[in-house]
Amino acid sequence: MKLTILCENSVGRAIPAIGEHGFSCLIESDGGNFLVDTGQGLGLLNNAQVLDKNLRQLDGVILSHGHYDHTGGLEALLRYRGGLPVYGHPDIFVERYSKTAHSLRFLGISQRRELLETLGAQFHFTPQFQQVGEGVYVTGQIPRNTPYEKGDGNLVQRDATGQFFPDPFADDMAVVVETARGLVVVLGCAHAGIINTLNYISEVMQRDRFYAVVGGTHLGPVSQEQFELTVAALKNFHIEKLGVSHCTGQARAAQLRNEFGKRFFFGSVGAVLEVD
Questions:
Q1: Nearest-angstrom CA–CA distance, 104 and 98
Q2: How many beta carbons lie within 10 A of that of residue 161, not counting itself?
Q3: Which member of 68, 83, 142, 147 lies 3.0 to 4.6 Å from 120 by CB, making a disulfide possible if both were Cys?
Q4: Average of per-residue pLDDT across 242-256
Q5: In a domain, 276, yes or no
Q6: What is d(CA 12, CA 15) in angstroms, rounded to the nearest whole number?
């Protein structure tokens, strides 16, 4: 099994790849080749070519949630290679925004579902934990049981009356791959909370050992108290490799490097995790 980061905020080595605010990770395994998220759409095809990855050989796309920086490359991918199964929670197409005192920005999927379907997207909605390939699973909706994982108050949805309310991110999900060395978890942004996510996977899979946890952790905007509680909880799991990306932020990533030492790596464009 091999993971390769195709889209991320930064490029980690001297290759002619593109960094962009977003995330995409290619899973190549005996259970199939799956692309987890597609970035914004600026770098996906270029970076795949640079990293010698043939996206025509994909068995499916998994969307971790319905934000533009994780779904924007889907249109370009479909135009490049045609029809493809796309797995995601039923709420991926909800209307969502970032709202502050000074700005309102649309953050949802930029393309209409009808356009993506005419380009060959075959949507398979996954509200619950289920298998999508041999040894490859999606979590579906993740229960929120950790009191300190409060989410980001600036991320909102709008109801039928035009009122904004905190985005519950019912569609946030992770991907789990069984390997010879243990479970590998790929996170999109972990809007449900990284500890909620790992607790749920442990409960369903009946394991508390993870060979690797890779992807966005959404620890960048959280309070110091939440960060410290999260680090303490992470240390209670048996995680051999922690590769953070995207919404973790540079400052939090540096702190995690100090906490986890040689078990840590930064999941930038070009980063590879291979399990024999």
A1: 6
A2: 5
A3: 83
A4: 97
A5: no
A6: 8
